[in-house]
From TrEMBL:
Keyword Metal-binding: no
Alphabetically ordered keywords of this record: Membrane, Transmembrane, Transmembrane helix
InterPro entries for this protein: N_methyl_site, Pilus_4_PilV
Native source species: Stenotrophomonas koreensis
Protein name: Pilus assembly protein PilV
Positions of transmembrane segments: 20-40
Claim: Membrane is one of the keywords in the record: yes
Superkingdom of the organism of origin: Bacteria
Pfam families associated with the record: N_methyl (PF07963)
Length: 170
């Protein structure tokens, strides 16, 4: 009697070319996914950096408002609306108001330097201080910038502009 034992080893001695191609395809798709995640991470990291800079710039002007509280309560720092460029300093105003206007201009320049760019019209800031009943002022600082790098999907709905507001009593 002749008994032959068939071992699967004898018939299969390696991976077929199709198996290798499928493995390479799966690896390629995985690497593309990793690259897409890295790109999204960089985009969102830039957005987070700009948000941090906006908060830091808000606190910087608040420190200036606290240092010159008399002019802040008088409304000398008020911009009236979003200011995207430096305004002319009116020489007819008092020295305190001129200093306040110079501080606001320097703050707007700092916004451009740290968040936007020199020529953009989307990086703006506003300051509104109103006297309160306690002898101080309630101040609202708003910073607006283009956050198009931070949005994952562009919906075209104008959602690229980002605004943060800081409200404080000084």
């Amino acid at each position: 009697m002749n008994h032959r034992v068939y071992s699967p080893r004898g018939r299969q001695t390696g991976a077929s070319l199709i198996e290798v191609l499928v493995a390479v395809l799966i690896l390629g798709v995985g690497l593309l996914g990793v690259a897409a995640m890295q790109a999204a991470s960089l985009r969102n990291s830039q957005s987070a950096y700009e948000n941090t800079q906006a908060v830091a710039q808000s606190y910087a002007i608040l420190d200036i408002l606290r240092a010159n509280r008399v002019e802040a309560v008088a409304g000398s720092f008020n911009t009236g609306s979003m200011r995207c460029v430096a305004a002319d300093i009116d020489s007819e105003h008092s020295a305190g108001k001129q200093a306040a206007q110079a501080d606001v201009n320097a703050w707007v320049a700092g916004l451009k330097r740290n968040i936007g760019s020199a020529g953009d019209t989307s990086t703006c800031g506003s300051i509104e201080c109103a006297a309160n009943t306690f002898g101080g002022a309630d101040c609202t600082i708003a910073v607006q910038w283009d956050d198009s790098r931070g949005t994952a999907v562009d919906t075209g709905a104008g959602d690229d502009e980002r605004t943060i507001e800081t409200v404080v009593a000084i």
